[in-house]
Design brief:
Length: 577
C-alpha cells in the first residue's frame, strides 16, 4: 500500500512539473449585450429602454457634413489591406476630390505616401504622423498615429471644413476671388476662388484648424473695416458659407452661413427645392418749404428660385429657374407701370465625372426680361427722342412722366457650351489643372432706346429753333434698331498653384480664346495671364505681387486691348491680445 501511494505522489509531482494546462473551453463567452439581443424588446428591463444618450460634440459636428458619419464611411470603404499591414482612415467632410490630399510622414520626416480623405491608407505597423489641411507646411494639421497589424485606425476629426460659394446679388454663382486670414492667431492663408458652374467647376473645401477667420476682398488690408466678413469654425464642423460679391470688382456686399440650394429629396438621388419671397415698400417725403417738395413712391418686388438636382456617381445634373421682378407703383396707372429689377433665367448643367481627375460637362442657359422696360424722367423736365439720322428738331420733346425704352424679351440671350476639366497633377506642393471646351452665344435685340449725353450730339444736326436750355433739361434718347449676334469658338485655360514649403504660395492662370464666328481669329487668339505670389516674410508680414496681362486682337481696332498691370502689397497686422 505504501508503495502504491508513493508512486501516485511521484506521478502527481511529475504532472505539475512537466504537464500542460488543459485547453480552453469551447464556445464564446456570453455577455449582457448578447442576452439583450436574444430577448424580445419587452423582456429588457425598463431602466435600459428608451434611454437617450446626450449627443457628443462629434455627433453634433457630423450632422453638418456633406458626407456620411465616420462609422458609415469606414464600413463602405473597399480598400484592400495586405496581410501584415494595418491602415489609417481620415474621414471626409465633402467630396474627397474637393479636399486637400493627406500625407503620411515617416519617423525620419520623409513623405511615405499620399491619399484622399474618406479611404484607408495601408501602412506597415509602427508610428507615423498624418499631415492634412490647407496652407503652408507650418499651417497644416499634424496628428500622431500608431498602426497595428490587421487594424484600421480612424483619426477623429477635431479640425474644421469651410466651403465658400461666391454669388452675385441675384444668387448666381460665379468664380469670385477672396482672401482668407485667421485673426485669433494671425495667419494669412492666401487667395481662394469660388466655383464657376458654367465651366463645370465645384466648390473646394478648406481644411483648417478651429478659430475665427476673416474673408477679405482681393488686395484688402488685413485690419480693414470694410469689404470683409468673419466666420467662426468649431472642431469637427463643416461650414457652408455664401459670399455675395460684385462680379466687376470683387467687392464683398455680404455673406453668411446659408445654403441656397437646400431642398427636399424626391429619391435618394433626386432633390428639389424652392425659395419664393417678396417685399412691399411705401415711401413718402414732404418738404413744406419746397413748391414741389412731396415725393411718394410704392415699390413691389418679387423673387423666386426653383431648382432640381440629380447626383449619382458619376453623373451630376442641376437645373434652376430664377425670377427677380420689381414694380414701381407710384403712377397708380397700371398701364404705365415702370419696372425695377427684371431678370428671368433658366439654366441647366450636366457633368459626367467618370474618372476622379477627368470629366466632361455641358450646359445651356437662357436669360431675358418679362416686362417692357420703362424709364422715368426723374429730375428732367422732358424727354427728347432724336431722329433716325441723329438730328434733333422741335418735335423731339415728350412731356410724359415715363416712356417705354424696350419691349419684353429684349434682349433674349441663349448660351451653350461643352468641355472638360482635367487634373493633370495633384501633389502636396503643386496642383496643375487644364480646362478645354467650346462656347456659343446667341443674342437677339428688338427696337429700343438708350439715353445719351447732350455733349456727345452733333451741334450741326440740332434745329436752330430749339432752346438749348430746354434741351439741357431733357433726357435725350437715341433709337437702336433690332439686331442679333451669334458668337462661337473654342477656349482653353491652364491653372497651377504651388506651395513653397514654409515661405508662401504662388499661382498662375492662362486663358486662351480663339473665336471662329463671326470673325475667324484662330491664328490671332485672345490671351489673359493672371499670376500671384504671396511670400510670408514673418508671422505678421506678407509680401504679395500680382501680374496681369491681357491681349485682345479683334479686327475692330477700337476693340483691341493690350495692357499689363503690376500690383505690390506689403501687408502687416498687429493686435494686442
Amino acid at each position: 500500500m505504501t508503495l502504491i501511494l508513493s508512486l501516485l505522489f511521484i506521478n502527481f509531482l511529475f504532472s505539475i512539473s512537466f504537464g500542460a494546462l488543459p485547453p480552453e473551453l469551447p464556445g464564446k463567452e456570453i455577455k449582457q449585450d448578447d442576452i439583450n439581443w436574444l430577448l424580445p424588446n419587452d423582456s429588457i428591463p425598463s431602466t435600459e429602454k428608451n434611454v437617450k444618450k446626450p449627443l457628443t460634440w462629434y455627433d453634433k459636428a457630423a450632422k453638418t457634413w456633406l458626407a456620411p458619419p465616420l462609422s458609415e464611411q469606414m464600413a463602405s470603404d473597399r480598400t484592400n489591406i495586405p496581410i501584415g499591414k494595418g491602415a489609417v482612415f481620415v474621414p471626409r467632410f465633402s467630396d474627397p476630390e474637393n479636399e486637400p490630399d493627406i500625407e503620411i510622414i515617416g519617423p525620419d520626416g520623409s513623405i511615405l505616401t499620399t491619399g484622399k480623405s474618406g479611404s484607408s491608407l495601408p501602412l506597415e505597423p509602427g508610428n507615423y504622423h498624418v499631415m492634412l489641411g490647407n496652407g503652408t507646411h507650418r499651417q497644416r494639421i499634424t496628428r500622431q498615429i500608431e498602426i497595428i497589424e490587421s487594424k484600421t485606425v480612424p483619426v477623429l476629426p477635431d479640425w474644421c471644413g469651410l466651403r465658400i460659394e461666391t454669388v452675385d446679388t441675384t444668387a448666381t454663382s460665379f468664380r469670385g476671388e477672396y482672401e482668407l486670414v485667421r485673426i485669433d492667431k494671425f495667419e494669412p492663408f492666401g487667395r481662394g476662388f469660388g466655383a464657376d458652374p458654367v465651366l463645370g467647376e465645384s466648390v473646394k473645401t478648406w481644411i483648417l484648424k478651429p478659430g475665427t477667420y476673416k474673408i477679405l476682398g482681393r488686395g484688402e488690408g488685413y485690419n480693414t473695416m470694410v469689404n470683409f466678413i468673419t466666420v467662426r469654425l468649431l472642431p469637427g464642423e463643416l461650414v457652408n458659407l455664401t459670399l455675395v460679391q460684385r462680379p466687376e470688382d470683387g467687392i464683398i456686399l455680404g455673406g453668411g452661413n446659408i445654403n441656397l440650394t437646400t431642398g427636399t429629396k424626391l429619391t435618394s438621388n433626386w432633390k428639389y427645392g424652392a425659395n419664393i419671397g417678396g417685399t412691399i415698400q411705401f415711401n413718402g417725403e414732404i418738404d413744406k418749404r419746397e413748391e414741389h417738395g412731396s415725393s411718394i413712391s410704392s415699390i413691389l418686388s418679387f423673387r423666386a428660385n426653383l431648382w432640381v438636382n440629380y447626383n449619382k456617381e458619376p453623373y451630376e445634373w442641376s437645373s434652376f429657374l430664377r425670377l427677380d421682378q420689381g414694380f414701381n407703383l407710384s403712377e397708380r396707372n397700371f398701364s404705365n407701370i415702370s419696372s425695377g429689377a427684371d431678370d428671368f433665367r433658366i439654366s441647366s448643367l450636366f457633368i459626367w465625372r467618370f474618372l476622379p481627375w477627368f470629366g466632361p460637362y455641358g450646359r445651356v442657359e437662357m436669360n431675358t426680361n418679362l416686362l417692357p422696360r420703362r424709364i422715368r424722367r426723374e429730375k428732367f423736365n422732358e424727354f427728347c427722342i432724336i431722329n433716325k439720322d441723329s438730328s434733333i428738331d422741335l418735335n423731339c420733346f415728350d412731356s410724359t412722366s415715363s416712356i417705354t425704352i424696350g419691349p419684353s424679351f429684349s434682349p433674349f440671350i441663349v448660351e451653350a457650351g461643352a468641355g472638360t476639366n482635367l487634373d493633370l497633377l495633384s501633389t502636396s506642393f503643386m496642383d496643375l489643372k487644364f480646362r478645354a471646351g467650346t462656347g456659343a452665344s446667341y443674342s437677339k435685340f428688338s427696337n429700343n432706346y438708350r439715353s445719351i449725353n447732350i455733349v456727345s450730339t452733333d451741334t450741326a444736326k440740332i434745329d436752330e429753333s430749339i432752346d438749348y436750355n430746354r434741351l439741357n433739361n431733357s433726357l435725350i434718347l437715341t433709337p437702336e434698331n433690332k439686331t442679333s449676334v451669334f458668337e462661337f469658338g473654342p477656349q482653353t485655360s491652364i491653372n497651377t498653384s504651388i506651395r513653397i514649403g514654409r515661405l508662401g504660395t504662388a499661382g498662375a492662370e492662362l486663358k486662351v480664346f480663339a473665336p471662329i464666328v463671326p470673325e475667324m481669329r484662330f491664328t490671332r487668339p485672345d490671351y489673359e495671364l493672371i499670376t500671384t505670389l504671396s511670400w510670408h516674410l514673418t508671422s505678421a508680414i506678407t509680401l504679395d505681387y500680382d501680374f496681369n496681362y491681357q491681349l485682345k486682337q479683334p479686327d475692330d481696332k477700337d476693340a483691341q486691348i493690350e495692357k499689363s498691370i503690376h500690383r505690390i502689397w506689403l501687408r502687416f497686422s498687429y493686435t494686442s491680445r
